[in-house]
Amino acid sequence: xxxxxxxxxxxxxxxxxxxxxxxxxxxxxxxxxxxxxxxxxxxxxxxxxxxxxxxxxxxxxxxxxxxxxxxxxxxxxxxxxxxxxxxxxxxxxxxxxxxxxxxxxxxxxxxxxxxxxxxxxxxxxxxxxxxxxxxxxxxxxxxxxxxxxxxxxxxxxxxxxxxxxxxxxxxxxxxxxxxxxxxxxxxxxxxxxxxxxxxxxxxxxxxxxxxxxxxxxxxxxxxxxxxxxxxxxxxxxxxxxxxxxxxxxxxxxxxxxxxxxxxxxxxxxxxxxxxxxxxxxxxxxxxxxxxxxxxxxxxxxxxxxxxxxxxxxxxxxxxxxxxxxxxxxxxxxxxx
Length: 336
What we know:
The protein is of the alpha/beta class.
C-alpha cells in the first residue's frame, strides 16, 4: 500500500470541491470544461491517495454504509447528512453511483443528469474528507472492463452536452472511478463490497489488484446463491464459501449492494446484508431507501447487530430488516 501523506502535507482542497461536497448541483449550468477540469483533477487527487484494492479501516467507533445510489443524489446527500455535527466516523459507499438516474417519487420522476451530479458530489466528499469517506467500485463503475447491460450514463450526458463534450466527460468520469478500491474491511469484522466475494483460487487479500478481472468479477458481480440472477456474468456463492472467506480476514458479515430484490434482507444466518439507497429501488426487496449504522463495538458478529434506517419524508427512521436464515450456527463456521 502506498503511504498517504499526512494531512498537514496534503494540498488545500479547492473552493469548488467544497461547494460540490455541500451541494450536488453546484456545477449545474456550468460549461462542460469546468466539469471536465474537476474530474481531471479528481482523478489525480484520488490516485495520490494511494488507496489499496482492499481498504482496511478502524470501525470499532462505528461507521455508516450506503448501498447503490444510481444517480439519486438527493438520497446520497441525505444519507451523508450528519445533523449531530462533525464526525470522524467512517462512511462507506459500496458502489453504483451512475446509471439509471430516476426516481419513482417525488415528482419529477427523472433526475436530469443525476448520474453526473451524484458522482461529482460523492467524489467531492471523498476529496474533502479522504480519511473518512470510502468509495468502492460497483459493477457500473467497472463497465469499461466488464460491460453492464443497458447503461444510461453516456446518454444522460448527451442529453445535456454536445456529443464530443459528453464523451470527454464520460471518459474522465471513468478515469476517476476506476481508481477507487474494490472492497473494504473494518477492524471490527465487517467486509464490504458491491456484489460478492473473490472466486476460488484468488490470491490473498494483501495481493489483490484492481486489474485482476476474475477478482473484479467476483467482488462487483457476485451474488449469494439463494439470490442469484443469471446476468451472463458473475457467479453465485453459498453460505459455506462466504463463511470460509470471511473467517481468516477476520470478519463475520458481508455488507453489499447490487441486488435490489434482496434489499433490506439478511441472508446466511446474518452473514450477508444487502442495501439499496436509491428511490428507484425503494419498492424492491423488503423496500425502502436504506442506510446502515454499524455500532461502536470491538466485534460485529452478524447483520442482526447492525442498525438499518429508512429515509421517510426526509428523516431517517428505524427499519426492521427481513431475515432469511435466522441468526445461529453458520455452515462452514470456523473455516472448516
